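Onboarding guide, step 5: your first structure request.
Type a short instruction followed by the sequence, for example:

Predict the 3D structure of this protein.
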Amino acid sequence: MPGLLPENVATLAIDFSYLLVAFLFIMGLKAMSSPVTARRGIVVAGIGMLIGTLMSFLYPGMGNFALMLAAIAIGGGLAWWSGRIVAMTDMPQMIALYNGMGGGAAAAIAAVELLRMTSVPADGAVHHGPVVTALAAAGAFIGVVSFSGSLIAFGKLQGLIKRSFRFAGQQAANLLIAAATLALGGWIVVSGHPTLEMVIGFFGLALLLGVTMTLPIGGADMPVVISLYNAFTGLAVAFEGFVLENAAMIIAGIVVGSAGTLLTQLMAKAMNRSLGNVLFSGFGEGPAAEASGVTGALKPIEPSDAGVMMAFAQKVLVVPGYGMAVAQAQHKVWELCQLLIDKGVMVRFAIHPVAGRMPGHMNVLLAEAGVPYDLISDLDEINAEFETADVALVIGANDVVNPVARTDKSSPIYGMPILNADKSRNVLVIKRGQGAGFSGIENHLFYLDNTRMVYGDAQKVAAELIHAVKAAG
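The system replies with structure tokens like these:
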């Protein structure tokens, strides 16, 4: 079937466009490294993706344009609609879902190539060489694991899956499933003409592996898991780009895969844990999660008194956590901080790398509320300032401010870098109740002599604090 342009013209246009696409992807990713330029980076990378998509229509022999346009319209429409209606608190599970779709798309491409190999040409030739077939199988394996694993992560974050599922010998079972999947994939590569049953079995085992790998992982580790599966998706896309000889897919996959890998390593480091420990330790579940040696008592304080304490402080450091996201309190919190700034109080926001349920979750929420970027600092930048802070205001954060990470070698979070909120002169903790955090570990910060608990929904409490600060004159 003839293409839209003569073959030589189309090839030249495609090659040039992919060079441009690579440049836009890299520049977009570079811009995303700073909150100030992140929006521009997303637009630049989006333009690159648009160009790469449009160029696919120019491929010589390309047909089925109506189906392609329909798929783009349906997928783009659903993405636009869901992006418009999703709450900021639901962004982590949306990212998990979209990432799973990317892995599934890469796996679908591989499925087409592998299913094509099930039919033997009349001359008995092999459809692909062993290297290309191996890349297709590898992309299928990684993409399918990312797809099913991301769906489980979505279910956990959305609350559809209420608990982690574990049984004796689970790791051994996962190892057997992985070995069987890889063995079947190797058989497909060696055979050159796999049967339909072999391909179906291969995809079925890979789907099962993604499920069984992710179900045991606790909620505290979901940010790392999402980042890992993001890297998986990028790698799968890159492999299928080699299979299709599509430079844009190769470039996009490598960029996403490398970025996801680096982010996963940084997050694991921020939790002082290896990736293997995240995937196989069962952190945050069962008796191991219980902290020992809790002394003292929880000491509540009324919002009116807490507001007065902050109104007469010189420095207030705010530590946001997932509780702020759930209550959608970021706007009220920023309104409170603006009042304090107007009174001459120095206010800064302290962000832990794994605060919330995805990388950068707190930064996104604060940016949505209009908090200036220069008031937001990460752990390394601000940790030394807690010792000179009059008040550390902890809003729905838990594990990232738990001092047992520094002192209790028996704790699962021992060695994890934390925000030094406990070293402030006073600590105010806004919390809905007395339950433990994502990891299930009791927080010793709440029992310290300089800590006071302000119980209630974060948005409601923030409104009461605003009233108290105003009344303080």
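Each response can be followed by summary notes, for example: The longest strand covers residues 315-320.
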